[in-house]
Prior knowledge:
By secondary structure, the chain is an all-alpha fold. Helix content is 89%, strand content 0%.
Amino acid sequence: MSRNEKIKEQIGWLKLLFAILSAIVVSLVGWIATHYKSGDFNLYIALILVVIISFSLIDINKRAYRKMDELEEL
């Protein structure tokens, strides 16, 4: 496998991970919106997860752009 193809495959995996985590964040936000009045422990866990996953999404996005720049240099 050439370096070019390897980088493309890595970008593909990052896209898949980005899509899955985005769907999880949207689902959690929807769940939070329907249960925000309860104020139970699960709500706080969901809020923390949204923040953590959002930062993960930012990191994945940065990695994908770095890979795209690396692909452009080849």
